Structure formats: structure tokens, C-alpha cells
Amino acid sequence: MIPARRRGTPPPLRPEAPMSILPPVYARLTDHVAAAVRAAFPDLEAMPDVQVVRSKPDFPSDYQTAVAMQLAKPLRRAPRQIAEGIAEALRARTADLIATVDITGPGFLALTLSDAGLADVLAEQVASPRLGAPTLEGTVVIDFSSPNVAKQMHVGHLRSTIIGDALRRIGTFLGHTVVGDNHIGDWGTQFGQLIYAWNHWRDDDAYAADPVAELERLYVKFHQASALDDALNDAARAELAKLQAGDPTNRALWAKFRDDSQHAFDEVYDRLGVRFDETLGESFYHEMLAPLVDDLTARGLAERSEGAMCVFFRDENGEETLPPFLVQKKDGAFLYATTDLATIRYRKERWDPVRVIYVTDLRQRLHFQQLFATAAKMGIDTRLDHVWFGLMKLPEGSFSTRKGNVIALKTLLDEGEARARAVLEARNAEQDDALSAEEIDALAPMIGLGAIKYADLSNHPQTDVVFEFDKMLALNGDTAVYLQYTSARTHAVQRKAEAAGAPTPDGHPVHLEAPEERDLLLHLLDFGAAVHGAWENGRPSDVAHYLYQLATRYHRFYAKCPILKAEGALQASRLSLNALTQRALTAGLDLLGIEAPMRM
RNA sequence: GCCCCCAUAGCUCAGCCGGAUAGAGCACAGGAUUCCUAAUCCUGGGGUCGCAGGUUCGAAUCCUGCUGGGGGCACCA
User: Fold this and answer.
1) Distance in angstroms: CA A16, C1' B15
2) Where residue A113 falls among pLDDT bands split at 50, 70, 90?
3) Is the pLDDT of residue A357 over 90?
4) Tell me, what's the pLDDT at A403?
5) Nearest Cα to A409, choosing from A274, A258, A544, A257?
6) Is the ipTM beyond the 0.85 threshold?
7) Residue A73 CA to nucleotide B63 C1', Å?
8) Within this chain, do residues A567 and A428 fall inside the same structural domain, yes or no?
9) A430, A319: one domain
10) Which stretch of DSSP H or E encloses residue A76?
């Protein structure tokens, strides 16, 4: 039985996470609380959804749960009285992990970990290769970036590329086999136009100098010319038909345009550190389209309407739940929808993925609702998620080729690096322990690209972004540089500690004196939850926020707690915190595709 | 016309499958370095969480309506 869903509501992106993949501390605490609830109220019919969360900074406890309030109604008793019962049972069975259980406010159970318990969970964290994140299995396909052949990559491509790459890294980190697939636009109408334009107006020298720029010029020129003379459109269609029929000349041109464009894409990807496992463009699927439509028709999933082949979505009353999805035009040509359906089917057959994630802008939301609904009709039960993000705009309005205000991705990256270099050089001039020229060469792209990526990734993806160089490349505040600086600090501490002969920290013992230390440690334990949440929600910004919080806590700890001047157990404990912070920062930044320098 | 998304501090945003006193950054005002990198830290002012109802022990968070902004809706991708 499929649960009723409101008209037009997309499928939920966050299914319930099974208990078993909670990070260690939370798994233990929830287990304890649940067991205490059972012990205190054996007659309880239904177990409530027990959630243990970190207490807010100003509250004295480490963790808290509102379970007593949730039980007030079924038990028909006062929350505080229920909390008493649970607290009693908790105290009786968890002295090793929980030091104190208090009842606060309307009936919250406030839990504070014992020193032994903290030492225990810390040791687990240190021993965990994934820093407490769960292990996930199966193959996941991520479809991202997807630029069009013959067009320059501009800042509008940045978000899909950066978010998709971060998701690819996060999924891989969590244990999935991830297939990053660049579904480039290398087929369709524009090729007939390009071939026509190439044959009539090409400038061979310009092409030799910058193929993509020349193709873009031809593309624009064709559109200007065809607006005045409709015969050009027929001519372009004829070239397209020849191409699709396998005409060797047009086929060779098409391959040339595609390959030369790919080189330009690769330059940008290399600079960004973005990798794909596959680049199966639309052309790869074109021979699968006719059989697909035949199949849809044969199975009664598609029907002819106003000359076109459509998939309709109707509920049991015959009401349309979504607008129709066109899979074939009346002239017989196939559409974006057709290719995407063929792609889903191909991916299912080749990889049998547990999940497929599409990263595109919000304008495609309806398309993906229709696509996923059709896939379901076809019997494809893979989890399909559309991770969508807001549009990139200029303060004065949207980007547009016609307005000539499109900013090439390359230009943005150059600008980022140049600004980072300028800051580095200015700082270096007034620093005692100066960086070498080689170090600056290495740091400028790390910092410049980090700033650009972080500006994008730290925003909730589903909001529009107003593109401003100054904001995007700001080098203070909640930015990548702040995180990178934190990383450099942990390395500096480590270097000096090693030079002074301090033993390598192993998370043993834990010796917490200042509240800043406890706060940092508890936050470190949340790494796995943050990464897993980011993955489930399709939202790398969760990792970015976690890291920012981590860096802030580390700096407070650093300002308050001397490390190298501390002695014995206290120093060992602080060095462990330092080391674990470094691991979490390095791993977390890597998940965002940002490098963590050892010195800056 | 129908559908979807958004509205939180002067600005940019976080928090949103309900949980205590709504948090950051920027900007503004002030302070901290005999001590591990001051790209840091601390303090301060700043809020009818768009408006009005509703559900609930509890609403920025869920529901309904309204206002304003953005996006989409048959042969583009």
C-alpha cells in the first residue's frame, strides 16, 4: 500500500535512518534511554522514537532527550514524574557511561558523560577509520556537472559541479561504490546548427586558438541568422538528419566538436580537482531511444496525444497528478525525457545501484518528478533523488548570453587564485617565518579555489546565490581560509610538540579541565553524524557547517588551553584533541574538495 | 489559470521530519599578544522568525488562508 501523498509533492528525500547506523555515542545513549524506558514502564505499548541530542551550549549537560514529554500522553502522567522513573532506571544501569542524569525544565532528561565514558567513546573515535561515520554499501550513481558541448563552462555550471563532486566524495567516504557520471549534452538539435554554421562561417585560425570560443561564436551567429531566415533552420535539420543517419563527414565533425570541448572541460575539472568515473553523454543513449518508446507504448505506459507520445500520471479517480511527460515529438524526434529514461534503465542494468542522485538547478524539479514517476511505472525501484539548487544570479539580474554578462568559470578561478596570492604575499612581507615562493605557489590555488568552493558549499543549496566576487572570495569570516588556517594551526602545534619530544597522541588518556576542551571533544564525536546527514540529505553544506563549528571550538580551546606548556597527562590529552581535530578537519575539507594546508 | 520553492538581526545566511533562552559571518563600538601563527580570541548593541488563524504540554519548525519574491507547466535541454 502506497501511502497517500499530496498532489505534486515530491518523494521524501530523507527516509528514516535505521538505528544501527547512528554514530557510536548516540547509538549507545539511545539504547540506554530506550532500555531505561522499558525498565521503568514495562507496560508501555508502543516505544516512542527516542532521540538523544547535544544540549545547547548554555546548558550544563552534554546530551538531552525529550522522551519523557513524548510519553506524557500515552502514560497519562506528568512529564517530570515520568522523567523521574526513567532517570532512576538510567542511573541503575549506565554508571560506566553516564555520570549524571538530571531532570530539567518541563521534563528533559539531561545527561552528562562520565570521564570513563568519554575516554571510551574517544578511543572508539580514534580507532575508527571513518571517525565514527557509518559504513554504507552498494553502488550509487551521481549525475552532475553535465555541460553542453560547444559551450564554455561558466559560473552557472559551478554549483552542479562542486556539489556533485562533494557528494561523490562523501558517498565514497561512507563506503559506497560511487559512479560519478558526467551526462554531457553532446547530441541533438544544436549539432545540426553547428555543422551548418561551421560549413558556412567558420574561422579556422580562431578555432585553432580556442575551439570552444569559436564554436560558441558560430552558435550565436546561427541563432541571429536563423531568426532572419527560417530556411536556415531547415538546412540545420537536414545536417542533423545526416548526422543521425551516420553520414561520415558530419559524424567526424561532431566527434571533433565533442572532443575539443571535452579538452576544455577537462582543464577546468583538473583545476577544480573534480573527477568523473564515466562520461556518458546523451549521444551514448541515442540508439536506445526508439526501443524504449516502443516498450513504453507496448506496456501501455505511453500513449499518443496531439500527435506526440506521452506518459500520463493519473490517480485512481482518473485525476492527473502531474502534467504529462513527453517522450516523443509528433515529428518522431526524441526528447530530453526519453534520454533520461534510457539512462535510468541503462544504469539500472549496468550497476544495479541502490541510489541515483541528480544534481541540477531548481528549474528541473518538475522534470525529475515526472522522470521518477515514470521510472516507477517501468518497475525501477532504485532510490532516485533530485538534489536541486538555486540559481546563480548577478546583483542586477540573471546571467544571459545575450546580455553578454556570462562569466567564464576559468575567469572566476583565475580571479580567486590571484586574490589569494595577493593576500599571501602581503601577509608574507610582514611575517618573521616567511613562506617560500614554492609554498606560495602551492597555497594560492588551495586558498583561492577553496574560497570559491566553500562559498558555494556552505550555503544551503536550495537558495539562489547572488554572485559577487568580493563575497565569494572573502578571506575572513565563515570561509574556507578560516578552516584552512585552523588546519595549519593544528599542524604547527603538532610539529612543535614532536620537536620537543612529546609522545605521539593516541587518544589516551582524556583529561579535561576547561569547558572548551569538553565542548571540542563532544563536537568531534559528532563528525560521523554530520557526514552521514549530509549524504542522506544530499547537502554538503551540513559538512561545511560542522567544520566551521569545529574550527570555532578548536580556536576557543587553543586560546584558552596552552598545549605545549601543559605537562604530562594534560598535555597528552590536549595533543590528542589537537590530533583528532586535525583528522576531522582534513577529512572533512577533503569531502568538500578543499585542501587543508600544513602551513600558511 | 494551475503546481512547486522561498520569506529569520542593517546586509548575507544557519537553524525547519516540533523541544528549554532563535544562532553565525559581515558591518559598527571596544578589548586581548612576557605564552603553541592576531587569517585568532573575547565583550557589546542590535529580532513582532512576512501577516492572520489552527494543531500541540510545547511552533521559526507542522496545517490552512493571505501578502510579497523566485521557478515551472506539450513537442528546448
Assistant:
1) 20
2) very high
3) yes
4) 61
5) A274
6) yes
7) 21
8) yes
9) no
10) none
A597 found inside a domain: no
d(CA A23, CA A288) in angstroms, rounded, equals 44
Protein A565 CA to nucleic acid B34 C1', in Å?
A: 14
Q: Are residues A356 and A497 in the same domain?
A: no
Q: Where are the beta strands (DSSP E) in A333-373?
A: 355-361
Contact of A457 with A481, CB cutoff 8 Å: no
> Strand (E) positions, A367-480?
383-389, 392-394, 397-398, 465-466
Measure the CA–CA gap between A584 and A85, rounded to whole angstroms: 38
> CA–CA distance from A214 to each of A153, A184, A198, A219 (Å)?
14, 19, 9, 9
Nearest to A550 by CA among A494, A470, A490, A594: A490
The set of strand B positions with any atom below 7 Å of a protein CB reads: 3-6, 12-17, 19-21, 23-27, 35-37, 39-42, 57-58, 64, 70-77
Give the nucleotide nearest to A542 (CA→C1').
B14
Which residue lies nearest B24, CA-to-C1' measured? A478
Nearest residue to nucleotide B69, by CA–C1' distance, is A464
Distance A462 CA to B8 C1' (A): 16
Domain residues for A70? Answer: 24-127
- Tell me which protein residue sits closest to nucleotide B6, measuring alpha carbon to C1': A463
Any idea which nucleotide's C1' is nearest the CA of A49? B17
* Number of folded domains that form chain A: 4
Same domain, A288 and A242: no
* CATH number of the domain encompassing residue A562: 1.10.730.10
